[in-house]
Design goal:
α1 packs antiparallel against α2 and α7 runs parallel beside α9. With about 425 residues, the chain is of the alpha/beta class. A hairpin with a 4-residue loop joins β4 and β5. About 35% of the residues lie in helices and about 20% in strands.
């Protein structure tokens, strides 16, 4: 606008100067004319000057109108943020803002006992395969929420499902999901996919009618194409992560007894190792012990120790929940993470969960000798490294690793569910 005003002012000055020169020339020329003609000359010059001024004013108005339409294009806008392309792994569910999961606060205050055995640790009546593959339960999706940051190595979702109380389960069990459609490889309907349940038997709403799954969207990046290949994506994980509230799901189960909690011995420490979505069963464990008002939580006298291995800070799952428990129960809960792309181990390499086990190996062995139960859940690729680390600790203490592991297994202290 400043440049436009300057241009218009200069134009007007030129027009006025030309008008003044014309007036002087006319006066000089007409000085030889007799006096009676002077009056007529003055009248003509005045009219001429008025016309010139009127034309200058019209030109000024026209220029202003014309410049207003282009003034915006003359402004240079400095970017205030960097624009980056959105990839499928960065998608955030728009429903998350209005449908957040029930995390540590508020803690359940009402006593929860309507789904307990008698006594509460009696596992003889645990539900198993209530709903089979040929007669699955029709349940409905309550919410789907992305729970990792934009720099996470993939998309992981917290999915709450309403089973209307028709599929009771215990902490540590799994549920089966049957995705719709035909498997092109077999030309038959898709089979069941198993997922560890990430909630207690009471569900995140404490009413015993929901279950929660923690699901990572399985995708395949094709280096030749330079993009994700949809033909190779995980059928069921994408089906679940794309689900919408009210959508029906076919559920089977519950299944499994390997990962059940050792509630008959409430003084026993519980050591939990997870990679990625292997955190699921431990979310059920820890909510039962520290969030819900249950007899199991009230009588727990041991130590719960969680090791979680992921790529980076953005990939940590339920991190705020664990920190809140740690702050409230510092004597009963420990939380350690292994961030392979952000931390270094003692040898200067990437920090994996086996490195954390080796770091605290002496304490882990002491707890196991006190009757602790140790759980492994996640990718099976973590097991060789973890076993190797524990073997190294055993040898450093002059113990036979084979004999030690055999003793733990016979005592029921060793729990593995990897995939």
């Amino acid at each position: 606008m400043s440049r436009l005003a300057t241009q218009l002012s200069a134009t007007l000055n030129v027009v006025l100067a030309l008008a003044f020169v014309a007036l002087v020339i006319n006066v000089k020329t007409q000085q030889s004319v007799v006096a009676p003609a002077m009056s007529r000359l003055a009248t003509q010059l005045s009219a001429t000057l008025n016309v010139v001024l009127a034309l200058a004013f019209v030109a000024l108005v026209i220029n202003v109108k014309t410049q207003q339409s282009v003034v915006g294009s003359s402004i240079v806008r400095t970017p205030t943020h960097k624009i980056i392309p959105v990839t499928p792994s960065m998608r955030v569910n728009s429903r998350a803002a209005s449908q957040s999961r029930n995390i540590i606060a508020p803690q359940s205050t009402a006593r929860l006992d309507f789904l307990e055995a008698s006594p509460y640790y009696d596992q003889s009546g645990i539900p198993v395969n209530t709903h089979k593959n040929k007669a699955p339960l029709t349940a409905k999706v309550v919410s789907v929420e992305r729970i990792v940051g934009p720099k996470a190595t993939g998309e992981t979702c917290n999915i709450v499902i309403d089973h209307e109380g028709k599929m009771p389960y215990w902490e540590g069990q799994s549920a089966g999901v049957i995705p719709p459609g035909i498997d092109p490889k077999r030309n038959k309907p898709y089979g069941v996919r198993l997922y560890s349940i990430a909630s207690t038997r009471y569900g995140d709403k404490f009413d015993g009618k929901t279950m929660t799954l923690c699901v990572r969207r399985a995708t395949y990046w094709d280096p030749e194409l330079g993009r994700e290949d949809p033909a190779k994506k995980g059928v069921c994980s994408n089906y679940l992560c794309d689900a919408k509230p009210g959508q029906e799901l076919a559920l089977t189960g519950p299944s499994g007894k390997v990962m059940l909690m050792p509630e008959k011995t409430p003084e026993a420490p519980i050591i939990m190792l997870a990679t990625g979505t292997g955190i699921a069963p431990y979310r059920g464990f820890l909510r039962r012990l520290f969030v819900e008002n249950t007899e199991a939580g009230e009588k727990f006298k041991g130590l719960a120790w969680l090791f979680l291995g992921v790529a980076n800070s953005d990939a940590l799952l339920y991190d705020d929940d664990w920190k809140a428990i740690q702050e409230k129960y510092p004597e009963k809960f420990r939380y350690d993470v292994a961030l392979s792309r952000e931390q270094k181990n003692a040898k200067g390499g990437k920090m994996y969960i086996q490195d954390k086990v080796e770091e605290y190996g002496k304490e882990v062995f002491e707890l196991m000798n006190l009757g602790a139960h140790i759980y492994f859940c996640g990718l099976k690729g973590m097991m060789p490294g973890v076993l190797g680390a524990m073997e190294g600790v055993a040898k450093s203490q002059g113990l036979s690793w084979e004999d030690t592991l055999s003793k733990w297994k016979k005592a029921g202290q060793w729990h593995v569910e990897v995939y």
